[in-house]
Design a protein that fits this description.
The complex is a heterotrimer.
Chain A (H helix, E strand, L loop, with lengths): L7 H11 L5 H4 L1 H21 L6 H26 L7 H17 L5 H23 L4 H21 L9 E2 L15 H23 L2 H11 L1 H6 L4 H27 L1 E2 L6 H14 L6 H19 L4 H14 L4 H6 L9
Antiparallel strand pairs in A: 1-2
Helix pairs in contact in A: 3-8, 4-8, 4-11, 4-12, 4-13, 5-6, 5-7, 5-11, 6-11, 9-11, 12-13
Chain B lengths: L2 H32 L6 H19 L2 H22 L9 H23 L15 E5 L2 E4 H23 L1 H11 L1 H6 L4 H23 L9 H16 L4 H29 L2 H26 L10
Antiparallel strand pairs in B: 1-2
Helix pairs in contact in B: 1-5, 1-8, 1-9, 1-10, 2-3, 2-4, 2-8, 2-9, 3-8, 5-6, 6-8, 9-10, 9-11, 10-11
Chain C lengths: L1 H17 L5 E7 L6 H17 L3 E2 L2 E9 L4 H15 L3 E3 L4 H13 L4 E2 L6 H4 L7 E2 L6 H12 L4 E7 L2 H13 L3 E8 L7 H10 L3 E4 L4 H12 L7 E4 L5 H7 L7 E4 L8 H13 L7 H19 L7 H9 L11 E2 L5 E12 L5 E13 L10
Parallel strand pairs in C: 1-3, 1-4, 5-6, 7-8, 7-9, 9-10, 10-11
Antiparallel strand pairs in C: 2-3, 11-13, 12-13, 13-14
Helix pairs in contact in C: 2-12, 3-4, 6-7, 9-10, 12-13
The chains are: A mainly alpha, B mainly alpha, C alpha/beta.
Chain lengths: 343, 306, 386
C-alpha cells in the first residue's frame, strides 16, 4: 500500500536526479539574480504599455493579483517559514477591509490613514486570536483559526451599519495626498505595486534574519528550539500577528480596489483558496505566493470565459500539483539552482 | 416557558447532535485513524443524498434508496481511495487539504453535469411524514425519531466494532501508533482501505437520511462539513466517543442558543440591542464553544493519541 | 524584452478580433455556481430563450450577448464588470441574482454610463438615496413582502410569527411585511445564514400558536424550513412568503409539503396576457415542460426591454440620453402586463397572490389567486433625488 516507491514526492525527486537538466542559475547566474527587478520593471511599465494593445482591463486585473499576492505572501510567511497552518487568514483580510469601511463611514478619506489603520487593526486582531490559537497544534490549529474566522464572518454578516451580507459600497475613492491622484486607476496601480514590492522585500529580509531562522527552527523542531532557550510561543505569536497585519493591509487595498466590501471576502472558502494558492506556488519559497496567485487567478479568469464548468480543471490542477510537483511551482524553477529555496 | 417546551428543545438539540454525529463519525474515523484530512467527506455525503433522492423517487422505496446510496458511494469512494487518497496517507495535512479540496471542485462540477444545478426533490417516506404524539401536548416529527434512532445505532455499532472486534483492535492500534502497529505486522494499508470505505458508507448514510429534511443541492457537503469538523475537533480527533459527546454538546449548545438566548437577552437588555445581539450570538455559539474547549484542552475533550 | 512584446501582440490580436463596429454588446453576469446557482440557471434559461427569439439581435442590429459565470461572489462580479466595461465595451449590463452583487457592480457601471437593467434584485439603496438614472429594476425587494402583509390582512390573520435569516436583507423583508400588515406580530425569529436544522424555531412557532407564519428564507434555507415545518405537524398553521421563498426551484425541491403556501409576486406563469402566454409556451417547449420562475421570466423581459429601447433610440446605442429615454418609456409588451417606471426607475405595477397547488397534469406549481396590490409603488421613492 503506502510503500516508499508509491510515494510520489520521492519519485519525483528521483526522476529529477536521474535526468540532470541544464540549470538555469548555473548558465545565467545574473539573469536569475536580476529577475525580480526585471519583473518589477515590466510591471511598473505595464499601465503605460497596456493602452497600446487595448489591454487597459488587465491593469486592474494585475492590480488585484498583486493585492491577493500580498495576502498570500503573509500566509506563506507563517505557513512556509513558521509551520503555522492557518485556515482563517481571509478573516484578517476582512478585518482590514472593514476597518477601511468603518473609517470611510465615519467620514475619513485619507487612503494612508485607512490602510495604516487596516494594518494595525488586523495585526491586533491576529495577536489576540493567535494568543489563544497558538496553544494548539496541527489540525487543531487549522480548526481553531477557522473557528475565529467564522466568528468574524458572522459578525460582518450581521453588522447592519455596514450593510451586512449586502456589503458596503465605497462611492468616492480614498485620497492619497496632494501628490497622487487617488481616483486615477494607474496611480493606484503603482501605489499597490510599490506596497507589494516593499512587502516582498521585507518578507525576503525577515526570512534571512535571526527571527526568520528562529521561525524555521521552530517549524522543524519546536522542542529543540525551546530547549535552546528561544521564546517559542512569543516568536510564533509575533510572526502570526505580523502576517495578520499584512493580510489586513491587503484587505484595505482590496476594499479600495473593489470600491466595495462584503462578508464574502472572509468566507472560509476564501481562506482555503489562499492556502491553495500558496501551496500551489510553493510553501516557504520566496516567490511561491505570487506565482501561485498569478497562476490560479489567471486560470480562473480564462476558464470562465469558455465554460460554465470551470471548477474541475482547477481541481485537477491541484491533484497534479500534489502528485507531480509537491514542492509547488516555485520549486520547479528553484530546484535547478542547486540549493533549492528555503526548504 | 413551560417544562414541555424546554424538554422539546432539549430533544431537538439531541436530534441535531445525532445528525451531526452521523456525519462526524465517518470523518473522525478517517481523520483520526488514517491521519488524513479528507475535506471531500462532504462530497461523499452529497453523493449519498443525490443517489438516495433519485432512487427513492424512481423506486418509491426509501430503504432501497438508502441501501443503493451507500453501495454507490462506497464504490465511488473505493475508486477515490485507489486513485488519490491512498497516496496521501503519508503526506502532510496541508497536502491532503489541497488534494481533497481539488476533489471537492471536481465533485461539484460532476454533480452539476449529471443532475443539473436545481435542487433535487427528496421526499420523506410517507409513513414517517407526519408527527407522532410523544407525550400529550408534544407532537414530534416521526422522521426525526428515525434519525435519532439511526444516530444511536451507528454510535453503538461503532463502539462495538472498535472495542470488541479484531478489526477494531487493528484500527485502534493504527490510530494510536501507526508505526508500531506496522512493526507488529499489521497490514495498515488494508485496514486503511477498510476504514475509508466505512467512513464513506457513514457519509452516504448521513446524506441519504438527511436528504428528506434538507436541501439536496450542490454545496450541501461544504455546508455540513464545517459543523462536522467542529464536532470532531471538540471531541478530539480520532475518538468515536469524543465525536459522540461533542456532537451532542454542539447540538444542545446550538439549539439552546437559538431557542433560549434571544428571549433571555430580551429580558435583561434594551429591545433594540437584544434584537441585534441575540441572533448574532446564537449564530456563533458553536464556534465559541469550540474556541473555549480548545483553549482549555488543546487536543479536544478525548484525545485519541496519548 | 522580446517575450513581453510577443505576449502583448498576441493579446492585442485576440482582443482586436472581438471588436466589431456595429455589434451591440450586452454583458450578462450569471450565477451558475455559488449560493444562487439554481436561480442563476433559471435566469440563464430565460436569457437564452430571449436571445433565440430576438435572433441574436437587439432592435434589428447585430448583438453579442456575453454570458459569464461569476460564482455568486460580489468581488468576482466586480472583476467581471471591469472586464465587460474595459475590454468588451458593453452597452448594457444585466444578470446577477443577489443584491450584494448588484450593489458591488453598480458604481462602476454608473460611472461608465452603462445602463444596468437588473433582471432580479431591486435593493432599497438604489431605490432611495443612491438611486441612479442608469439603474432599472424589476421590483423593489420589499414590495413582495408588502403585498404579503396585505394578504395577511385580507385573510384575517390577527397574529403572525415572522422568520428570516439574521442579516440586513432579512430584516428589510420583515419590515416590508410589517409596513402594510395591520395585525400583531407575536414573534420575530432570526436564524443563522445557511442554517440546516430548524427544529428549535419550529418549536418556538408551535408554542406561539400564531394564525400564520411569514417566512423569508431564500434558497436552501427555505427548502430545509418547509420540509421540517410540515414534518413537525404545523401543516395547519398557514405559511405566507414573498415569491422568492416559494418559486419553482423551491416547489420542485420540497414537493407535496409546499401545497397551500401563499406567496406574492409581480408575475405568475398563468397571467392571462398574450405576451406571457407566448413566453410560457416557448419556455415549456424548450425546457421539457417545466414552468418558468420569476427569475426566468424577468431575464426574458429584460432582453425584450433592451430590444425595444435600441429600436426606439433609432439604433444609436452610443447616444446614452436617447437610450435612457427609451428605457424609461418601455414600448414592449412585458410578460407582467402594464407597468411604468417611478421617479427612481423602479416599476409601478401590480402584485399578485399565488398559491402552490397542482396544475391539470398533476404538476406542482404556483397558481394565480388574484391581484393584491394594484399599480403599487415602492416605499423608498421619496428619498430618491434624480
Amino acid at each position: 500500500m503506502a510503500n516508499p516507491v508509491s510515494d510520489p514526492s520521492r519519485a519525483t525527486v528521483q526522476t529529477a536526479a536521474a535526468h540532470p537538466q541544464p540549470r538555469l542559475a548555473v548558465r545565467f547566474p545574473g539573469l536569475v539574480r536580476r529577475l525580480p527587478w526585471l519583473v518589477l520593471a515590466v510591471l511598473a511599465l505595464f499601465p503605460l504599455l497596456a493602452p497600446l494593445g487595448g489591454l487597459e482591463y488587465y491593469v486592474g486585473f494585475v492590480r488585484r493579483l498583486l493585492i491577493v499576492a500580498i495576502a498570500a505572501a503573509s500566509l506563506n510567511f507563517i505557513l512556509g517559514y513558521g509551520g503555522m497552518a492557518a485556515l482563517g487568514h481571509a478573516g484578517f483580510v476582512g478585518v482590514g477591509a472593514y476597518t477601511v469601511v468603518a473609517l470611510v463611514d465615519a467620514g475619513f478619506s485619507s487612503a494612508w490613514l485607512a490602510w495604516g489603520a487596516a494594518l494595525l487593526a488586523a495585526g491586533l486582531c491576529a495577536a489576540l486570536i493567535g494568543a489563544v490559537s497558538l496553544r494548539t497544534r496541527g489540525v487543531y490549529f487549522i480548526m481553531i483559526t477557522l473557528a475565529f474566522a467564522q466568528m468574524l464572518y458572522y459578525l460582518a454578516v450581521s453588522l447592519r451599519t455596514y450593510g451586512g451580507d449586502d456589503g458596503y459600497g465605497l462611492y468616492t475613492p480614498l485620497a492619497m495626498g496632494a501628490w497622487l491622484d487617488g481616483a486615477h486607476p494607474d496611480v493606484f496601480y503603482w501605489v499597490v505595486l510599490g506596497i507589494a514590492a516593499l512587502v516582498f522585500a521585507a518578507f525576503g529580509r525577515v526570512a534571512h534574519s535571526r527571527f526568520g531562522y528562529a521561525l524555521r527552527g521552530i517549524r522543524d523542531n519546536e522542542t529543540r528550539m525551546a530547549a535552546l532557550g528561544y521564546p517559542v510561543y512569543r516568536l510564533k505569536l509575533a510572526g502570526f500577528a505580523a502576517a495578520g497585519a499584512v493580510a489586513g493591509l491587503a484587505g484595505g487595498l482590496l476594499a479600495s480596489h473593489n470600491a466595495f466590501v462584503s462578508p464574502a471576502i472572509m468566507h472560509w472558502t476564501q481562506s482555503a483558496l489562499l492556502l491553495v494558492m500558496v501551496m500551489l506556488g510553493g510553501l516557504g519559497r520566496r516567490w511561491g505566493a505570487p506565482l501561485g496567485v498569478a497562476l490560479w487567478l489567471t486560470l480562473e479568469e480564462m476558464l470562465k470565459l469558455y465554460t460554465d464548468y470551470w471548477h474541475w480543471p482547477l481541481g485537477l490542477l491541484l491533484l497534479l500539483v500534489v502528485f507531480r510537483a509537491p514542492q509547488g511551482l516555485a520549486a520547479l524553477f528553484e530546484r535547478r539552482d542547486g540549493h533549492g529555496g528555503a526548504r | 416557558m413551560d417544562a414541555i417546551f424546554v424538554f422539546e428543545q432539549l430533544l431537538n438539540g439531541l436530534g441535531y447532535g445525532l445528525m451531526l454525529f452521523l456525519i462526524a463519525a465517518g470523518l473522525t474515523l478517517v481523520f483520526g485513524i488514517m491521519d488524513t484530512m479528507n475535506l471531500a467527506h462532504g462530497s461523499l455525503y452529497m453523493a449519498g443524498a443525490y443517489v438516495a433522492a433519485r432512487v427513492h423517487e424512481a423506486s418509491a422505496s426509501f430503504a432501497l434508496a438508502v441501501l443503493v446510496a451507500v453501495l454507490v458511494t462506497v464504490a465511488v469512494a473505493a475508486l477515490l481511495e485507489v486513485l488519490v487518497v491512498r497516496h496521501l496517507y503519508r503526506r502532510d495535512h496541508l497536502v491532503q487539504v489541497l488534494a481533497t479540496f481539488g476533489i471537492i471542485l471536481i465533485a461539484d462540477d460532476a454533480v452539476k453535469a449529471i443532475w443539473g444545478v436545481a435542487p433535487l426533490m427528496a421526499s420523506t417516506p410517507a409513513a414517517l411524514a407526519g408527527p407522532v404524539q410523544l407525550i400529550d401536548g408534544l407532537p414530534y416529527p416521526a422522521y426525526r425519531l428515525l434519525l435519532i434512532g439511526a444516530g444511536l445505532l451507528v454510535a453503538l455499532g461503532l463502539y462495538l466494532l472498535v472495542s470488541r472486534t479484531r478489526v477494531g483492535m487493528l484500527v485502534r492500534a493504527g490510530a494510536s501508533n501507526r508505526q508500531m502497529a506496522e512493526y507488529m505486522g499489521v497490514r495498515v494499508g488494508g485496514v486503511f482501505a477498510f476504514v475509508f470505505a466505512l467512513g464513506a458508507a457513514l457519509a452516504a448514510l448521513a446524506g441519504a437520511l438527511m436528504a428528506p429534511i434538507s436541501a439536496v443541492q450542490i454545496g450541501m457537503g461544504e455546508a455540513i462539513l464545517i459543523p462536522a469538523l467542529v464536532v470532531i475537533v471538540i471531541g478530539g480527533i480520532g475518538s468515536i466517543r469524543g465525536a459522540f459527546v461533542a456532537a451532542l454538546l454542539v447540538g444542545l449548545v446550538d439549539t439552546a442558543g437559538r431557542a433560549f438566548l434571544p428571549p433571555a437577552l430580551r429580558a435583561v437588555l434594551p429591545p433594540s440591542v437584544a434584537a441585534d445581539l441575540g441572533p448574532a450570538l446564537a449564530g456563533i455559539a458553536m464556534y465559541v464553544l469550540m474556541a473555549a474547549v480548545l483553549t482549555l484542552k488543546p487536543a479536544g475533550l478525548f484525545p485519541a493519541r496519548a | 524584452m522580446p517575450s513581453m512584446n510577443k505576449i502583448a501582440a498576441a493579446l492585442a490580436l485576440c482582443c482586436a478580433a472581438t471588436a466589431h463596429a456595429d455589434t451591440i454588446k450586452v454583458g450578462i453576469a450569471l450565477d451558475i455556481s455559488g449560493p444562487f446557482s439554481a436561480l442563476g440557471a433559471e435566469a440563464r434559461d430565460g436569457f437564452e430563450l430571449a436571445i433565440e427569439k430576438l435572433g441574436g439581435q437587439l432592435g434589428g442590429q447585430p448583438a453579442e450577448f456575453l454570458r459569464t459565470d461569476f460564482g455568486g461572489s460580489p468581488e468576482q462580479a466586480n472583476q467581471l464588470v471591469s472586464r465587460y466595461l474595459q475590454r468588451d465595451k458593453i452597452s448594457f449590463f444585466t444578470g446577477p441574482i443577489g443584491s450584494n452583487a448588484a450593489l458591488a457592480v453598480g458604481p462602476a457601471l454608473f460611472a461608465a454610463k452603462v445602463p444596468y437593467l437588473s433582471s432580479n434584485p431591486g435593493p432599497s439603496v438604489y431605490a432611495g438615496d443612491k438611486c441612479n438614472p442608469y439603474f432599472f429594476a424589476q421590483y423593489q425587494n420589499d414590495t413582495y413582502d408588502e403585498a404579503a402583509g396585505k394578504v395577511a390582512n385580507e385573510k384575517g390573520y390577527k397574529n403572525v410569527v415572522l422568520i428570516a435569516p439574521n442579516y440586513p436583507a432579512g430584516k428589510d423583508h420583515l419590515n416590508g411585511f410589517k409596513r402594510l400588515y395591520a395585525g400583531a406580530v407575536k414573534d420575530e425569529i432570526y436564524t443563522r445564514l445557511g442554517q440546516i436544522d430548524y427544529a428549535a424555531e419550529i418549536a418556538q412557532i408551535r408554542a406561539a400558536r400564531p394564525d400564520a407564519v411569514f417566512f423569508f428564507l431564500p434558497g436552501a434555507m427555505g427548502i430545509n424550513f418547509v420540509k421540517q415545518y410540515v414534518g413537525g405537524g404545523l401543516k395547519d398553521i398557514p405559511l405566507i412568503a414573498p415569491g422568492f421563498s416559494a418559486d419553482e426551484d423551491v416547489i420542485q425541491a420540497v414537493g407535496e409539503p409546499m401545497i397551500g403556501v401563499l406567496n406574492t409576486a409581480h408575475w405568475t406563469h398563468d397571467l392571462d396576457l398574450p405576451a406571457n402566454a407566448e413566453f410560457v409556451a416557448a419556455f415549456r417547449k424548450k425546457y421539457d415542460g417545466r414552468y418558468p420562475s420569476v427569475y426566468a421570466a424577468m431575464a426574458y423581459d429584460t432582453l425584450m426591454a433592451m430590444d425595444a429601447a435600441v429600436r426606439d433610440a433609432g439604433g444609436k446605442v452610443q447616444d446614452r440620453e436617447a437610450v435612457l429615454k427609451a428605457l424609461r418609456n418601455p414600448s414592449f409588451q412585458s410578460v407582467r402586463g402594464e407597468f411604468r417606471y417611478g421617479a427612481n426607475n423602479y416599476p409601478v405595477q401590480n402584485y399578485y397572490l399565488r398559491e402552490v397547488g397542482k396544475d391539470a397534469d398533476g404538476r406542482l406549481t404556483n397558481k394565480l389567486v388574484g391581484i393584491t396590490l394594484e399599480q403599487h409603488q415602492d416605499a423608498y421613492v421619496g428619498a430618491c433625488k434624480m
